[in-house]
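Minutes, project check-in
Item: structure for the 339-residue chain
Input as provided by the requester:
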Amino acid sequence: MDIDTEASAGCAPRPKGYISTSSYPSFMHEQLVGHEGAVMAARFTHTGAYCLTSSRDKSIKLWNPQTGMCIKTYKGHGRDVNDAVGSVDNSRIASAGGDKMVFLWDVGTGQTITRFRGHTSTVNCVRFNKDSTVIISASYDRSVQFWDMRSNNFHPIMTLEEAKDSIPTMDVVDAMILTGSVDGHVRLYDIRMGAMREDYMKDPVTSVQFSHDRNCILASTLNSTVRLLDKESGEMLAEYTGRTNTEYKVDAVLSHNDAYVVSGSEDGDLCYWDLVSGRMLHRASGAHGKSVVASLAYHPKAPMLLSASLDGVVKVWHTVARADGGAVAPDTSGTQKAA
């Protein structure tokens, strides 16, 4: 079903049986239940058709977020799985473990293809490069390591070691690597140019993301604040406040069209802000009860959100609520207008 809406309209067209609409995903559609421990990360696959969750129960799960069905479970890590992402062709999964290892998985068979050893402590997060030929991992050991999937060399082909403390968050776009560290710095690497710029946030940085237009950086810190920075100069463009985040890693994300900022909170809430004005538009109180909302993921093409909490539950959020109390799934083909 098409939900065709303009950002200025403030609401989507109302399908038959609606009860309420919103221009951002604030109505719960599904719960993804199956993990036996805290969910550390939830990520959409490259196209957004499926999603991956990683947990302290040492497993990764592949889901259909529209139906809530668990398609496959991947087990092999010896400790917590802190992150998992899919390759551009959806045939591989890379995962980051508390066992100091990075795994490369075959999606279909559920077996590991390669186990990369090189980090000396917990691996916090993992990403693929643009064509999914290199895995990039960031660790508590203060390093970022690069792993070539095309060779039989199990040693990292490159290591970044500028951070002075753990690196809990990272984003990768083309040849740019963006990291956030507990040392309070956001670091932007241009691998092609061999250049690095760092911006000091004063407080530990636990979430970073490039804007989709590649002009800005969203950074979340352990002083309950989210900031929007100019990518080239590091100048602060906007600030988003009102959530609670002083102890745990809590994600903040941009919507698929860069219109909204969404963040979890340590009190179980979800907070939504207007990107430009910084005004809080909505607070979903008790979205995850009183459990920390640790991870968020916004669909790459549509107004759809995943939230994962330390209570082990993942929730799927849409923009249109049904009269029966559910939510109407958005068009995820990428043809709809900005919500």
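Outcome recorded: The first strand starts at residue 18 and ends at 21.
No further action items on this chain.
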